[in-house]
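FAQ: What does the model actually see?

It sees only this:
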Amino acid sequence: MRYVSIQFVLTAAVLAGAALAQAQQPAQSPTFEVASVKPNGDGPGKMQATTRPGGVFVAVNTPLRLLIADAYIGNQPGAIDRIVGGPDWVQSARYDITAKAPREFRPTPPGPPAELLLMLRALLEDRFKLKVHREPRELPAYELVVVRPGAAGLRRSDVDCDALFAAGQVTRPEAGIRPRCGVSNGPVGVTGDIGLIAGAFSMSQFAQFLQRVGRPVIDKTGLTGRYDFDLAFAPLGSSPADAPSDPARPTIFVALEEQLGLKLQSTKGPLDVIVIDSIERPVPD
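And it is asked to produce this:
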């Protein structure tokens, strides 16, 4: 889900979203037990999308196109611009949704639970009769590459996160404490400014996090396994790649190279867009 205008209460520290999922529904995809879908006529204003205890998902005043982007692309900057086609009301219509899952959502790194995204996709296909297909298009992107091998900032972790997640033993990160498998916010570096604290984080997950710079990020580091690291930087989105960097609060582009020996370099790559083939307004509850 979006984390700027929409507050998705899951893991406050994990800001990147789920990887691209297949546009076609799996044969036994999870679904909500019950769901209420109502149009919201309040117009532009406060939006919210959140999970609540008991496997409850709530969206308030949320644009339909954004719901489609979240369900099919996930928590990625620019995801809404990768939803194309459909009638004009797909862009303008807003909805309130309350849906109950069969059980609590199981966290999956990074971003919203994979089960939730599949359930949201199934809801859109059922209630809105949504049909889509994917098309690859050349779009601006970044590659995450290694420019200083063996940088001290990256420390290999031997934590088996897959086993921990499968056993349900990964909890929400706490601010200022290195998580077992994920990222959190806390004081970093000699200045003590709030930065990123990562525990047993893979480079593919980190690439997803870095998509908050405004483009998709492709992991080209070749680094396998998981790493612990700290990263101090100015707020994401505050400075472009070529902006001057304050040594005390460097841009993410400078911080990556100086602190972790990594770099974001511009490229273009084939990225999927979701094309709306057909959609209908839902029958009111």
